[in-house]
Amino acid sequence: HLNYLILTSFLFSLLLFTVLNCCEGDILLLLDSSGSVANYEFSRLLHFTAELLRPFSLGRGHVRVGLLQVGTTPNLKFDLDVHNSQESLQKALQSVSHLQGDTNTVAALKVAQRLLTEKNVPKVLLWLTDGVQPGDVDKPMTELKAQGVSVLIISTVHGNYQVLQRVVTPPLESHLYSVDIDNIDIITEDLREAIIKIIRAERLSVVHLTSHSAVLQWRPILRADSGYYELWYNSILKTEPEGRRTLSGDSSWVELTNLQPDTTYTASLRPESNHRLFNTLSVDFTTLPDVLSPAVVSVSDSGPHQIRVSWGPLQLARVQRYTVEYGAIPSGHVQTVTLDSHKNSTLLTGLEPGAQYLVTVSALHMNGKEIAMSVRACTQEALPALADLQLTPVERKEVQVAWQAHQEGLKGYWLNWERENTHRSSSKSSVYLSAASQSTRLTHLAPSSRVCVSPVYSSGLGDGLCCTAESHTG
Questions:
Q1: For the Fibronectin type-III domain, which residue ranges apply (predicted)?
Q2: CATH assignment, 296-378
Q3: Which of 165, 297, 343, 466 is most buried, judged by most C-beta within 10 A?
């Protein structure tokens, strides 16, 4: 039993030593401190973060940690260069206060872009959020990832999961966690291991990937005068000749081009030096499928006489022009609009109300190939307006309202007016009446109240009429 305890203690010490000396990189904590996060939830997130980071050696040359709070305005609690010891970091985490306010994540991400600019070290943005109203974070997150930042996310289960899936850095299974706040401790080891894989000192990683290219990045361990790197790569199935590159000792990244789409490659990097031997670094990656525009066509801003058609992705270097053809189904006259390669939407006007259209977007590519995609789109019905509206004074502050409307497809009416309250204040009032109603009496009208009646049809609201109820003193 004693031997077991000694062995266990030794293994734990060895593991701790491995974690302490494993890594070099920057970790910026993006902590949701807005009003949507409960105080208990906020304190649990702080405690979890403290335990997650406890094993790491801190400071330049090791792991630097910063904390940026999300609220109405961003609050940089401490920058990346502030804490060089666990004692200092743990004390700082205990003193973080809950900001409350709005969830302005976009503003905080702009600050994060300015903070995570250190070159030649891996960078991690760890976003801890309840996911409520994350905002339009796609663009700033994309810009961060273009800077070489790996985005990892913890959501306390009631968040907008689709948004989080889009902005997290793959793989999702180790970089995106959705957990109940009371069970958050169960992900500590998995998340820590995911961070270690990113900021491990010796590694070759893929920081950008397209269907025909890949950017590989590594922590530089040589100098221009102390050696060089040998790089070789090939598809797993060896369907093409092996690629080889010799890179200078001060290199830290390389872009591989002319790759095949949807193909798995393996790449190896060997540092060569007369001073010492280095391990060969390797990475496998799969290029993206070859997407040719238009891959997506969507319809919006539909009205009785117009629809907006949008498409993507924009491929300026590959597309000469776009052609949009549209005609009413089944046998309407087909019209054509031609647009240059910089356009990804157009507004189609002069259409028939309540009609179905077939819209086809075609892209003529530089290589002469033409790609097309079609969608069906419907214009809205032209809804009849209210035919007549009359106000007749009855008593003081009372009027009889009468109207006429087209009965076909009619569901009812919406009435809006200003009602006088106590102390001569007024408030807006409204009521919905059935299609059988053609008049009603309004009481306690505010002076010069504006009375409006709008017809309601099955497909929407028709144009209404308004009259001003003049004061009646008779």
A1: 200-290, 293-382
A2: 2.60.40.10
A3: 297
Q: How far apart are CA 446 and CA 397, in angstroms?
A: 7
Question: Are the C-beta atoms of residues 460 and 381 closer than 8 Å to each other?
Answer: yes
End-to-end alpha-carbon separation of the chain, Å?
104
Instruction: State the DSSP string of 113-173.
Output: HHH---TTS-EEEEEEE--SS--S-HHHHHHHHHTTEEEEEEE-SSS-HHHHHHHSPSPHH
Q: Between 3.20.20.140, 2.60.40.10, 1.10.132.30, 3.40.50.300, what CATH number should domain 386-468 receive?
A: 2.60.40.10
Each of the 474 residues of the chain gets a pLDDT tens digit; together they read 444 444 344 334 434 433 555 678 999 999 999 998 999 999 999 999 999 999 998 988 789 999 999 999 999 999 999 999 999 999 999 999 999 989 999 999 999 999 998 877 889 999 999 888 888 999 999 999 989 899 999 998 776 788 899 999 999 999 999 999 999 999 999 999 999 988 875 668 888 898 889 999 887 777 888 899 999 999 998 888 999 999 999 888 999 999 999 899 999 999 898 877 777 888 999 998 888 889 899 998 888 889 999 999 888 888 999 999 999 998 889 999 999 999 999 999 999 988 999 999 999 999 899 999 999 999 988 888 888 999 998 888 889 999 998 888 889 999 999 988 877 778 899 999 999 999 999 988 888 889 999 998 876 788 899 999 875 544
What is the three-state SS of 347-407? EEECCCCCCEEEEEEEEEECCCCEEEEEEEEECCCCCCCEEEEEEEECCCCCEEEEEEECC
Query: Residues near 376 by Cβ (< 8 Å), separated by ≥ 6?
Result: 329, 356, 357, 358, 359
Q: What b/e string do you get for 18-29 counting C-beta neighbours within 10 Å, with b at 16 or more?
A: ebeebbbbbbbb
pTM of the model: 0.45
31 vs 29: CA distance, rounded Å:
6
Structure tokens at 183: 């069970």
